[in-house]
């Protein structure tokens, strides 16, 4: 069964997705125009969504925004840890293919939070165990995620030099020290299509990472591999990134993102 066979459900989900992508509440007419839907349909669906708590109406402003029920769906998503469940087998398959350790991380404020860790046989233990947080700007997975953020959000996360506190991470001397240096790093990530760090988290270890995007193009997670620096020469890091990219594309597909 396709979306065209259930038009009301399709339109309802499109309205919710549109509201989730906005900076704040919007008018019903704006929704109708953006989604190319009849205004009467939009008003009817908004009324049903409002009744069930998924949408809140601001009568003075004549605008609609997401309601508490939508937030509860988000909380349920977090509780069920679908990224971990969907990502774990893919990361395990990646490790089998490349014979190096790999992990999956999500952005949490200025940190990355590691939610999946798969260590390759006879490879050193890593600091990126499940549940560990590290400053995003120091790590390859964090840089991959930050490179996909809008400029305004990046500025909000790193407004001044205080946001770049090293927090005791070993080997961080070569890491960005201010917003200008971080922007230069992220521009290289966008240009090359993958992020790297070389001894900035743990001396002697390097990492390559790519971003996983959700249905709206937003950075949902970062996939990275970490390996002893002498194992893989830098000229082969792009080949490694291509392997990660295939895993990222599959995970993106599984969470109904885009490749």
TrEMBL record:
Record InterPro entries: ArsR-like_HTH, GAF-like_dom_sf, HTH_MetabolicPath_Reg, Tscrpt_reg_IclR_C, Tscrpt_reg_IclR_N, WH-like_DNA-bd_sf, WH_DNA-bd_sf
Listed Pfam families: HTH_IclR (PF09339), IclR_C (PF01614)
Domain called IclR-ED: residue spans: 69-257
Keywords: DNA-binding, Transcription, Transcription regulation
This protein's record includes keyword rRNA-binding: no
Domain of life the protein comes from: Bacteria
Residue ranges annotated for the HTH iclR-type domain, each copy included: 6-68
Protein name according to UniProt: IclR family transcriptional regulator
Species this chain originates from: Luethyella okanaganae
Record lineage: Bacteria, Bacillati, Actinomycetota, Actinomycetes, Micrococcales
């Amino acid at each position: 069964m396709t979306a065209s066979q259930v038009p009301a459900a399709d339109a309802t989900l499109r309205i919710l997705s549109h509201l989730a992508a906005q900076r704040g509440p919007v008018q019903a007419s704006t929704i109708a125009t953006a989604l190319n839907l009849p205004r009467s349909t939009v008003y009817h669906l908004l009324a049903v969504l409002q009744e069930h708590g998924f949408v809140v109406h601001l009568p003075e402003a004549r605008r609609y925004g997401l309601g508490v029920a939508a937030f509860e769906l988000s909380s349920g998503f977090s509780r069920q840890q679908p990224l971990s469940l969907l990502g774990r087998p893919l990361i395990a398959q990646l490790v089998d293919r490349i014979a190096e350790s790999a992990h999956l991380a999500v952005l949490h404020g200025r940190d990355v939070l590691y939610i999946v860790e798969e260590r390759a046989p006879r490879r050193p233990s890593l600091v990126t165990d499940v549940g560990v947080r590290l400053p995003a700007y120091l790590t390859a997975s964090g840089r991959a995620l930050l490179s996909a953020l809008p400029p305004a959000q990046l500025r909000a996360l790193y407004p001044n030099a205080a946001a770049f506190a090293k927090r005791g991470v070993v080997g961080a001397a070569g890491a960005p020290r201010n917003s200008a240096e971080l922007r230069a790093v992220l521009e290289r990530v966008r240009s090359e299509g993958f992020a790297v760090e070389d001894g900035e988290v743990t001396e002697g270890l390097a990492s390559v990472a790519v971003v996983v995007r959700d249905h709206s193009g937003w950075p949902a997670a970062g996939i990275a591999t970490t390996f002893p620096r002498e194992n893989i020469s830098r000229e082969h890091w792009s080949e490694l990134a291509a392997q990660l990219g295939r895993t990222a594309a599959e995970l993106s597909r599984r969470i109904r993102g885009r490749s």
